[in-house]
Each structure stands twice: as C-alpha cells, then as structure tokens.
Amino acid sequence: MTRPWHISRRTLLRGALGTSIALPFLEGMRHSSANAAGSSPPRRAVFISIPVGFKDMTRYRPIMQASGSLPYTLPPVLAPLEPVQSKLTIIGNLENRVCEGGNGDGHERGTASLLTCQPANLNGSVFTNGVSIDQYFAQRIGGTAIPSLELGVEESADSGASVLGANISWSSANSPSAKEVDAGRLWDRLFSEFALSADELALRRARRESVLSYTRESATALRARLGQVDRIKLDQYLTGIGDLEARLQRTSECITPIPPSPTVKYVNSGDPRIVDVSGITARHDIMLDMMAHALACDITRVGTFMFVNGSFADWQFLGINDEHHLMSHSANEFATELDTICTWEMERISKFVQKLDSIEDTDGSTLLDNTLVFVSSDVADGELHNYDNLPIFLFGGGNSVTKMGQAIQPSGERKLADLYVSMMRFMGVEGNTFGAEGTGELDEVMV
Amino acid sequence: MHTDDEVLSLKGPASRSSGRIWLGVSLAVGFLATSACGNDDITGPPAAAGASGASGAAGSSSGRGGSGPVPPVTIPPGVNVVRRLNRVEYSNTVHDLLGETLPVGESFPSDETNSFGFDNDGASLNVSSLLVERWVDVAGRLVESLFARLSPLDQPFTNIVNGPCDNIRMGIDVCGPEFGISEGGFYSWRVREDPLVIEGLTVPADGLYKFSLDAYADPVISTQNEGVTKAGQPYPVVLQISLDGTGTNFDITEVTRAAPRTIEVDLPFAKGRHTVIVRVLQNENDPDNADDHWYANSQWVANMRLRGPLQGDVATPNVLECLPAALDPNQCARDALTAFATRAFRRPATTEEIDGLMALVDATKARAEEPGDDIAKTLQGVKLAMQATLASPHFVFRPELSVDTSSRDPQPVNGYELASRLSYFLWSTMPDDELFTHAGDGTLLQSAELTRQITRMLQSPRAEALVKDFAGQWLALRQVKHVSPLPARFPDFTSDVKLAIERETSLFFAEFLKPGNSYMDLVDANFTFVNAPLAEYYGLDSGSLSDDAFTRVTLPASSHRGGILGQASLLTETSHANRTSPVLRGKFVLAKLLCSAPPPPPANVPPFNEDESAGSVRQRLETHRQNDACAGCHTQMDTIGFALENFDAAGAYRTTDDRGGAIDTTGLDLEGTPISDRATLAAAIKANPGYPDCVVRHLYSYAVGRAVTLDDAAAVTELTNASAQTGYELPALIEIIAKSPAFLNHLEGQL
C-alpha cells in the first residue's frame, strides 16, 4: 500500500481537463492493486438496523434445528438472501431485554440499546447510554480518514423522532452519532478530495487546518468557562474538530473504482447519464453501495446503516399505502403488506452483501470475507415490542467467527452482547465483556 | 462575574449596571414570592443612561385591548443547557446575517425532539462529528456564496452544437440533436424526446441562479380531434427547464414568432457541476400519447443565459467594502471582522477573538501557496476568518457567558443574552438591529421596553416562526405533508386539498397570536380559513373564493367543522391511509391537548384490532374493555377517537363508517362528561382544566428549550392561573413567560 494515491488523481485530472469526458467523471478511476496485492486486508464491521421488527418471528425464522445443522431452507420472505446464504448465519435465542430499563417507548428503547446493550435514559438534561459496539470498534481501530460512517436514508426531523428513537450509534455515553441521509453529500464527504490535484489538496488542507485551529482554540477557551453539563456539548464539538484534524493527515487507497456521484436525479429513459436516485429503493441501495466503496477505499472500517424509519408511509411503489409502524400494530390486517416490506428489506441487504462479495480484497479473498455484516431490529415482533429471540443475521467474516451457512439456535437463551464480544476477536480488538451484560463469547456457536 | 467584563468590553457600562440592579429585584420576586409586586416593581433601574423616557405608559401595552400589565409570576428557572442552533434556527440566522437565500440548515443531520415534540430542546440538541463537519464545510460555502452574490456571473449560452453531446466545451456549449436555426437566432429541434442539454455547467458558489431564455411555439392548429387536442385547437407545447432532474414547466402553446416570451426560472445550484436540460414535455393529460401529431408543432428558443447567485430578500452585506481602496488592508480586515463577528456572535466580539481571526488573515498572507497580491491574499484571509467565525462555537451555540458558571444560583442574563432568548423564542432567528440596540444600551432589561419589544416582535412577519416551529410541532402540522389518504378511496382529497389543509390550520393558529382571541377556542372556534378547493371539500359556500388566496370565513351553525378537531389536518395526520384510527386520534388529544398521554403499551401484550371489520364502534370499544391490561388506556383513547368517527381518514364528514354501518357514539364519556361528536368533545376539552394547563406546558417547554417535568408543576399552575387572568390569550401568555424569572435568569446545570 505504498503507491501515492494522488498519482491516480492526476491521471484523472488529465481526463477532466480534456474535452471529452462523460459524467460521472470519476468512474474510470482505479487504484493500482499491484502494490497492495498480497497484503493482509483490514477487518471491517457493518451494523444494519431495520425498523419495527418482524410481523411474526416464527414465520421469518428458518426452522431452527440442532445447532450447526446444514443446510436449511429460507422461508419465502427471506428468499432474496438465497444468493448469499452460504455466507449467512441466522442466530436465534439472543435477547437484549436490558433495554427495558431505558426511557422511551418500545421502539426507542430497542433502538437506543441495540448496539449498546445498556439501558438508555434521559437523566435531567443529559442522555446516558453505553458506547455502541460500532464505536467501540472504531475507537480502538483508528487510523482511517473517517473513524466510522453512520448512514441512513430518512430525515427524522419531520417525524418527530427522539434522540433514543433515531440513533443506534453512540460515540460516548452521552453522545449519539448522527447519520448522513443524503447520497450527494455523502459522496462529497467520501470522494471529493480524490478529484483534486496534489497542489489543490495541499492548499485546501492548509486553509482548513487554520480554520480548525481557530475553532479548537475558541472551543477550548469556551469550554473552560462553562459548567459541567455544558462541557459535554463542547466535548462533542471538540471530538468533531479532532476527527477533522486527523483526516488532514490521512489519505485513502481504493481497491475499486470510485463510484459515480449520485447527485444527478433525472428520470429520462434512454439517456445513460441520467440516473434516478430519488426513489426510496434507490436511496437505500446507493447509500449501502457507498458504504461498500468507503470500506473498499479504506476510508473507514466501521459503519452503521439504519433503514427508513418505521413512520415511513410512501410504500406505494410496493402497492402499500400505510405507515410501516402503524401496520405493524395491526399485523393480521396487514400481513401481506408486512411480508412484502420484509422481502423488500432483504433485497436491499442481499444486494449490499453481494456487492461486498464481488469486490476482491488485497489478498484475493473478497471484501465480504473480511467484513462482518450484522443485521437486526429494535424489537423482535412489532406488535409485541419484545426483545427476546431477536432476529439476527450475520454475514461474511470468512467463517472466522462462526461457520457461515447455518441457522443456529443456542441451547439456552443468551445475551445479544455476547455476540458482540465474539465479534471482537474478528476485529482484532481486546475484550471479554460488553455493555451491561455481555460476559463472554457465544462459544457454543462460534468457531 | 469577571467574564462579564470580557464579553461586554466593547460597549458602555450602562447595561451591566442595569443588569446588576435588575438581578436583585428579579431574584426578590422569584424567590421571596412577593406576588403582590406589580409589574413596575420588576422593571429594574428607573432609566438607564440613554434610555430615559423608555419606560412610559406604553410599557404596559401588551396589545390586549387596553387591559393592564400581565401578572408577574415567580417561577424559578430550570437548568439551562447550552443550546446549539437547530436546523431551522441556523437557516434563519444565516439568512438574516449574510443574506443567504437557501435553507442550508437542511443539509445538517436531523434535529431530534423531546417528549413535547420540539426540536429546540437543549438535552436533545447534541453535536455529532458529522454535524461539526457540516458546520465547517457549510461555513466556507456560505462565505463563498456571499462574495459570489456581491459579484454575480452573467453567462450567455450562444453556441449550440448539433449532434451528440461529445466534444463540447463544458459549461459553455449547448448540445442537442438536429438543430435548426432561424433567422432571428432562434434554435429549434425536431426530436422532442431528446432534450437540449447544457452539460457540465459549473457555478462558483451555492445560491439561487436565474436561468432565462426566449421562446415561441409557432402553434399548429389541429384539424381533427386527436388525443386530448380537439379540432381547431393548437397542439400543446410545454417547455420544461430542469436542474439536475427537478423541473419547472412553461406552457408556450399560444406564444407566436411575432412575440416570443421570455421565460425565467430561479434554480438552486450547489457549487460545482450541473446539467440544465430544456425539453418539451409530452402532454401529461395524454398519458397514452394518443395525440401523436404533437410532433407537428415546433418550438424555438434563443438567448439562453444564467445569472447569479441572486440576492435574496435580505441584502447581502458588503463586508469588505473598504478593501479595494484600503490604504491599510489589515485595518480594513480588522474592522470588517469586528463588525461581522459581533453580529454573528450576537454580542460584541472581544479583542482576543478578533486577534485570533486576524491571525488567520496573517497566516493566509504568509502562506506561499496562496495565489494573488496582498489585496487578494487579504481577501482570502478574511474569507477564512469569516468561515472560522461561522464554524466557531460562539456562532453555532448560544452560550450565556455573563453568568458565573460555578454558581448554583439563578443569575440574570444580560441584555444580549435576553435579546437572543427572545428572538429565538419568537422568531427562530438572531436578534434584529433594534433588539441589538436595546440589548446594548440595557433598555431591553426594563419591563416597559421588554413589553414593547415583545409586542413589536409578535406583530412582525418573523413571528410566523411561532406558527411553523411551535404550532408546526405542537399540532404536528409539519407532518401534514406526509399524509396520503388512499386516492382510490378518497378521490376528493386532491393535491390542492392537501396543500390547503396545512395552510388552513397555520392561518387559523396565527389568529391566536393576535390579541383578543382565547386559545380556549382553538378547539371549537366558529371560524376558519379556506380557499375555494377547501371550501368545496368542507361543503362551505365557495362562490366568491379564490383558488389560491385564503379567506377567513365564519362557519355556519349547520357546519360540522369548528376548531382544530374539525380540521382535516389533524384528522388526516391521525389516520391510516385507508381508514380512521380512533386510537391515534385519541392519543393525539390526550398527548397534545390534555397532556395525559398514555404510557407506551407494555411488552408482550397481544394487540388490538381496531379495524372496522372487527365490528361497529360500539362493538370494538366493548372488545377493548374486555382486556384488563389495555382497558385503562384504550378506553380513554378510543372514546375520544370514536367521538370523531364522523370524519373519515381524509377528514371529510360522513354519517356511516367504512362498513356502511351507522356510527353510534351515544353513551361515551370523557372523565364523566358525556361526549358524542366533535362539538361535545370540544366542549369537554374546554371544560377540562387539563387543557389550558397543557397549552401552557407546551408553550413553556418551547420557550425555555427543555421538556417540562413534574418538577415544574408549581410553575405550570402559576402560569396557567396568570393566563386565566389574561383571558387565555397567547400574546399575554408569551409576555408572562418572557418576563418570568425562568426566562430572565440562567441556572447552571450540575452533573
């Protein structure tokens, strides 16, 4: 990994300055994998939450046989996962009931605690939760341009989402990590520097450094004048400044071409320059696609992605006319609709996982083999708001955590946090406990 | 309070001394509970220097039809968490500060809301790394945009390239297939599916740009009925101008060669590369394209041009006017940054802060890679310093630095801090010049001037923020744009109606921000605002009404409407797409109007079936009551919801339910008061002491930026009593809150 990436950028610029270049102008850019080939690829982890659970857990869970049994047949609503079934393990009998000690309604509790395995509360004017597992990893891995990537697709503002209901990623006990929901802004954040010449980049970074330096001094002085509670907010601010300062020192290398900028929103059949990115399906696919590219460019090694929230109502492209959450409360009435949405969700996940599996990593394995993709929900059953027997899908990891291709039922109920402890080994992170309750690996189902 | 001296170093001592005096008095009122004190007793200093005459008789005019001063309240402050600007406040602030034309705050991560549903809650307004990155980036873009507005571009596109869009000069040429050129320099093209493309168009900064062209159609008259075109009519020609896929349509069917029409459209460009497309739309009323002779027409365009970025309704400040002719560029830069940072920080910038900003200018001038001469480098340095100002925590937060943060006692805020508290409460934006003036000379801290400013602010168009941001969240009006009653089932609920129902409730609520209206009547007032489509939807006389403008109408006694409970905004946002939800309607009334929201359903409880297929209203209610675990909450929710069953999921009046059965609502009661329909439900709400209490809770929570809790029970009671004494009018309640110790003092939080 020694080849300076700005060389490929210069090559790119020659193209951009020429007279004939089509949108998207970075599409043709590739890094040379020659130097990187054979090196040991980094380990990555992605955590995905889908909202309001499943209509009926027994219906969506493959028949759980004895632990480790192979093969199994996916139920119809999970059929989109068939192409990646050999790299998928479905794990039953994990619970996260510790969240019931938190504030908020059933979905807020489950969301805030999904990755923290601690109850989340509002104490006076300060939220308290645990550090989420993605941030736990990000803070111990470090070294990438962006420590972690929090993505979603839906503004929470208009739907009145609370702190607890809108965030699965928590960088500290008091600090939720907001998510980017706009594909164009995300592209700018991840890839715009690749389009600059070395001189342009140096000037840009020098200017940015001086701005950051001023804001750091200003915030440090302000922090000293504020009280304890307010210092939490200033610490959040200073963490953000620190992340930006760190990025000034870092460059990234890609094992894939840079994806096209998704800001073009035309709908015009027949014109290949025109891509529809406005639909909710495309918004999921593009954000997850850019997540894959961010991993492939080693811009980050840790990500979270939240599906469209449960109050989303514009399902007319699936022939559905109601809010997901409202329907989940009348699951018999809306059985068909909820099945349809579930299958649609699995299509998005399958597409992302297949994308990861299609990218060759530096050692000849696939990106998916060096990535763990965890998928679950805030609640198990949307009608019951329960946190036992959660739906857990684990993809990738090259059989180093658990043997993939299984449906596993631990013989007794276990903590969700134990699965996160098991993931630590894969990520090369020390630790034997996690959250309020995680006390050890899920040894029974792990390799 | 040594910090006071630093922050206020650039202004005279008058306001500080008035603040000190006022401290003692307001504390006395707040904590000795001397409720006998009249309004004038909390006025503070008789007249600070330069403010003589400001505390005259007008001071007690709150606009309540000549009634006396509002009754003072003793409510103590709750903990004040340092609040950052939320998205709306950020957009509004840079609009006022910079003349920015785009709602840039919308590019930030969503703000989350507290249990009252408000997004200005100190605890919920956290700062993520992503937000900090956006703040830094947007700050730079705002500065670029400001300077770009001061010297906008004006770019014509004169060179049209025939054939495919290869080998064209990016951003200069226009390409498209098979062009013809007329004598007058107008272009036409034959194949209508193919657009005219201005590709790779690069603009220097974010902003609104005006794209213009001249066009005519040379109409061809159809000789026969064809598709949607009748014999003798011209084939329609609709041009669409789109930026990155979002288009605006212009019908030029009737425009002739003799008199071309100039078409202009303001487009929001982000800095960077874009594609503008001009094309001819197929007739949207002719989905099958049966009108296949529409090709017969031609369309001609010329004089394409892009100008911008445009100025908005607030003039862009020429912050560096002194620079081009400056003898001392550094002094010019210092003066400019002092003025800019003082407005951005909403209080005088300190010498140290300006020194820090000037260090950025110096560093820029010293940087070898920076292009240009001394003036150019100074300009670049000031731009960076302005970016740093906008990214600074003193801009994005609203810290209150006049207080001693080690103290655990409430302390009065100073004039500037009060000005910001007021302006973000009433306007969701920074103080204007007049507020700044009264903050600076200390007069804002006097009761009479404070009253005058509150009255002025409520009469300002900016007070619409209370409609958009307070009512928008309290009454969930922001969610109305998401409602989607099933078109097949509710064909009368057109897009015009959907737009109208949000506007109706906004205008209706705005009436209650004027003196003379009791907010008791929010639930059953006999007036509303309608345009023609909404009047028809409601079955009101629409004869003299406009399709666009809204008119206040008095509802006839026979109308089923009245108050927000009869407004389609509330009725649709609490419904499923295909049917009503008595549960959601009941929950809305309990949570938003009575502040007795039921707790979330317990885990592992089997669900209700509120679908109408499960039986009549009465049958379903009986079923709910059979389950002890649920009956407590659902009986109340469902009862309220059933009283509104005469309104369907699209808010239209009906006499039978979705099953075609009768709606039997007899025998329902809300805490002992019989209810059977909207009117009796409204009467029961008005009679319930929980209702004014709940209005107070919401407004107070919004005003102080935190969720009101059990600890505030005494304060809420006191506010509600004071509100009762002032006729339950919102302007008076706002003034009562704004003059309360809670609003005028700062209490530092402790961990």
In short:
The complex is a heterodimer of chains A (447) and B (751). Chain A is of the alpha/beta class. Chain A has helices at 5-17, 57-60, 106-113, 133-141, 163-166, 183-191, 198-225, 228-247, 280-296, 324-328, 335-358, 416-427; strands at residues 44-50, 88-91, 94-95, 121-123, 126-128, 149-152, 170-172, 175-176, 302-306, 371-377, 392-396, 407-408, 414-415.
Mean pLDDT of chain A: 83
**Helix amount of chain B, in percent?**
25-40%
Radius of gyration of chain A: 22 Å
End-to-end C-alpha gap of chain A: 31 Å
Arrangement of strands in the largest sheet of chain A: 6-9-1-10-11-2-12
Q: Which short descriptors sum up this protein?
A:
heterodimer; A: 447 residues; alpha/beta; seven-stranded mixed beta sheet; two-stranded parallel ribbon; 12 helices; 13 strands; 11% strand; B: 751 residues; alpha+beta; six-stranded antiparallel beta sheet; four-stranded antiparallel beta sheet; disordered N terminus
